[in-house]
């Protein structure tokens, strides 16, 4: 082995010298000391992600103030404060909040450190893309020697597999959604790294490995599933590799399959042990799966997360609403597994009652998975692009348009690439029971980038060598895929989503001119949306235009008679105007719509206090303190009531 490596070194150095155009050994001393293409690739992508993260720290987007980011961050802070559990089954996947709490404990409270870890994870994904391309599309020996040779134009022309990997990694580095998701508090980058690491382990092997390998793969997938459950769809792919790709004795394959499944259950054990022993509730990972099934399969479902009546957007509010509605429907307090079962039953009943509509809905989900339209439910990509935090780059549409024909050609010509295609399609299948968003489909992008790079290389090679028939076939596939991914979205509310969320973020940051521009554009797209009317009310309230604000709040209530936010804000405005009885009326409605909000009880207690109804005020403030005992203003009002 040592002799082989020594024999390879002069050729490697000569390749590098040929690229540079400067012959001689002395100039390549650093190369001989271990500088490799893989390392340069990893460090290059990491540097790009780190630059974006540094820009983020200089903006007002570093600290999460809404959506899933706020949900994860608040959960982590509760853990850090000693609230390890609420003694109920997890209602939200727990891994990422506990990881955040660990980072906060070790490094102090700052989203920068998690962002740094995620930047490294994204660089790792780019490296895996390169390795996959070298293994699947080229000769392994050539790949090893070329990796040591350095990067140059002459080298690229001689090593198409390496060039394919580099193009895919470059596409990943400048893929706009992932630039954003890797920087913010979101587990996307970590889950994608694990996903493609498992695929790489499948593709690079020809024989059943030592039994500890499938056990560790199962352990890794089970552990990751506590943060992103869709990775469990890779289990069938690993089992298929055991029996269809990896050679070895049948008994060894059976043992490896058993150890893989054992690893999955052991890896996920912190979740199901907590749920079973601490919460006394038989839930494997998280009890919110039933809710996701209902959101994805209901009379108003579109393939995107369309929230049915009674459920409001936003992770925290959505989970509270789902519990409240289920308990109200069944007339008793419920365990989290019972809440999940309630929503699952609602979805299954709708599917059984409307099979044709459900099949049509599945078709919509497939179309939306591949569509160029970006349903970014947290609208962070647009916000970071508008603030020049992320680099200009490519979106999902161009990746899918190029990746689909590349997938067809690669699977036809190169059997090993079929495992990458299977991983992409399995990830798509994992979203069909629920719904599609930009961050949910990102795990398919690395595989599509590999196929897109391979397809472009094949097209260029065929044109250069005058093989016009395969080149024309690829162009025909490209035309079809472009038409498919470019199918227009006709719902105006979808076009309003990004501007609406960007407007909310600008409003939260008190950037009122930008907020006005974004929210009014969203209103122009969808004037009959209750949430957009509510946002208009908040905007005009911030601008000091109370009459307009009231008008939009009333419009929101006409569209959604149970809109807690509109009732709450009308109540607050009435309190400011000392119209105590009117305030009590509005706030009582807000309490009905959102019975778990402690601040509503506090405001209602204030309105009763000023009308002289002290007994009602005491009842309301007592409930406020039960829900949130740490608010000093709640205690001050209670003490004032006791003095009276």
What can be said about this structure in brief?
The chain is mostly helical and 644 residues long.
Keywords:
single chain, 644 residues, mainly alpha, 34 helices, globular, disordered N terminus
Task: Tell the overall outline.
Answer: globular
By DSSP (H or I, 4+ residues per run), the number of helices equals 34
Q: Would you report the number of β strands?
A: 0
Q: Would you identify the regions where 5 or more consecutive residues have pLDDT less than 50? A: 1-34, 139-153
Helix content estimate: over 70%
Derived structural class: mainly alpha
Strand content: under 5%
Q: In angstroms, what is the radius of gyration?
A: 28 Å
Biggest sheet, open or closed, and with what strands and sense?
none
Indicate the mean pLDDT: 85
N/C terminus separation: 89 Å
Characterization of this structure:
With 644 residues, the protein is mainly alpha-helical. It is 72% helix and 0% strand. The protein is built from 34 helices and no strands. The protein has helices at 2-20, 29-32, 37-57, 67-80, 95-107, 112-137, 140-147, 153-158, 160-173, 176-181, 188-203, 212-225, 235-245, 250-267, 269-278, 289-296, 315-330, 336-353, 355-370, 380-386, 396-413, 417-431, 438-441, 445-464, 468-485, 492-508, 512-525, 530-542, 546-559, 564-576, 580-593, 598-611, 614-627, 632-643. It is globular, with a radius of gyration of 28 Å. The chain starts with a helix and ends with a helix.
Task: Spell out the blueprint of helices and strands.
Elements: H1 2-20, H2 29-32, H3 37-57, H4 67-80, H5 95-107, H6 112-137, H7 140-147, H8 153-158, H9 160-173, H10 176-181, H11 188-203, H12 212-225, H13 235-245, H14 250-267, H15 269-278, H16 289-296, H17 315-330, H18 336-353, H19 355-370, H20 380-386, H21 396-413, H22 417-431, H23 438-441, H24 445-464, H25 468-485, H26 492-508, H27 512-525, H28 530-542, H29 546-559, H30 564-576, H31 580-593, H32 598-611, H33 614-627, H34 632-643
């Amino acid at each position: 082995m040592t002799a082989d490596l020594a024999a390879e070194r002069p050729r490697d150095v000569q390749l590098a010298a040929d690229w540079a155009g400067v012959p001689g050994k002395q100039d390549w001393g650093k190369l001989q000391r271990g500088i490799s293409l893989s390392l340069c690739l990893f460090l290059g992508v990491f540097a790009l992600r780190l630059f974006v993260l540094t820009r983020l720290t200089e903006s007002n987007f570093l600290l999460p103030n809404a959506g899933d980011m706020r949900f994860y961050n608040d959960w982590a802070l509760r853990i850090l404060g000693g609230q390890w559990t609420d003694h109920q089954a997890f209602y939200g996947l727990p891994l990422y909040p506990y990881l955040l709490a660990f980072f906060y404990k070790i490094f102090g409270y700052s989203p920068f450190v998690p962002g740094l870890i995620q930047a490294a994870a994204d660089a790792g994904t780019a490296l895996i893309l390169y390795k996959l391309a070298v293994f699947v599309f080229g000769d392994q020996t050539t790949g090893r020697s070329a990796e040591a040779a350095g990067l140059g134009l002459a080298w690229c022309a001689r090593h198409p597999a390496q060039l394919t990997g580099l193009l895919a990694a470059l596409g990943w580095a400048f893929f706009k959604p992932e630039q954003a998701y890797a920087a913010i508090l979101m587990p996307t980058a970590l889950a994608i790294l694990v996903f493609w690491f498992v695929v790489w382990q499948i593709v690079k092997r020809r024989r059943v490995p030592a039994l500890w390998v499938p056990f560790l793969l199962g352990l890794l997938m089970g552990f990751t599933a506590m943060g992103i459950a869709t990775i469990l769809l890779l289990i069938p792919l690993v089992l298929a590799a055991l029996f269809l790709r990896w050679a070895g004795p049948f008994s060894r394959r059976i043992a490896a399959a058993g150890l893989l499944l054992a690893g999955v259950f052991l890896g996920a054990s912190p979740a199901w042990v907590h749920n079973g022993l601490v919460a006394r509730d038989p839930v494997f990972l998280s009890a919110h799966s039933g809710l996701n099934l209902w959101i994805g399969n209901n009379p108003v479902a579109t393939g995107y997360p369309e929230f049915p009546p009674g459920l409001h957007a936003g992770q925290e509010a959505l989970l509270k609403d789902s519990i409240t509605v289920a308990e109200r429907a069944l007339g008793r307090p419920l365990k989290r597994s019972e809440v999940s079962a309630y929503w699952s039953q609602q979805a299954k009943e709708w599917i059984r009652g409307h099979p044709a509509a459900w099949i049509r809905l599945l078709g919509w989900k497939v179309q939306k998975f591949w569509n160029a339209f970006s349903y970014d439910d947290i609208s962070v990509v647009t916000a970071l692009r508008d603030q020049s935090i992320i680099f200009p780059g490519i979106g999902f549409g161009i990746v899918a348009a190029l990746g689909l024909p590349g997938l067809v050609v690669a699977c036809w010509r190169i059997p090993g690439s079929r495992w990458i295609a299977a991983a992409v399609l399995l990830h798509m299948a994992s979203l069909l029971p629920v719904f599609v968003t930009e961050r949910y489909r990102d795990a398919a992008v690395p595989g599509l980038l590999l196929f897109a790079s391979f397809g472009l290389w094949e097209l260029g090679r065929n044109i250069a060598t005058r093989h016009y028939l395969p080149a024309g076939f690829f162009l025909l596939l490209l035309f079809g895929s472009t038409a498919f991914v470019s199918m227009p979205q006709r719902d105006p509310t979808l076009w309003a989503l990004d501007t609406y969320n960007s407007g909310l973020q600008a409003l939260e940051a008190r950037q009122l001119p930008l907020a006005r521009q974004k929210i009014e554009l969203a209103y122009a797209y969808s004037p009959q949306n209750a949430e957009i009317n509510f946002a208009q009310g908040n905007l005009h309230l911030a601008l000091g235009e109370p009459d307009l604000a009231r008008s939009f709040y009333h419009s929101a209530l006409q569209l959604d008679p149970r809109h807690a936010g509109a009732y709450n804000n009308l109540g607050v405005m009435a309190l400011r105007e000392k119209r105590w009885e009117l305030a009590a009326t509005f706030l009582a409605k807000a309490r009905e719509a959102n019975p778990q909000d402690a601040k509503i009880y506090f405001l209602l207690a204030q309105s009763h206090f000023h009308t002289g109804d002290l007994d009602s005020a005491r009842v309301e403030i007592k409930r406020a303190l039960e829900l949130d005992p740490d608010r000093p203003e709640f205690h001050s009002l209670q003490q004032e009531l006791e003095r009276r």
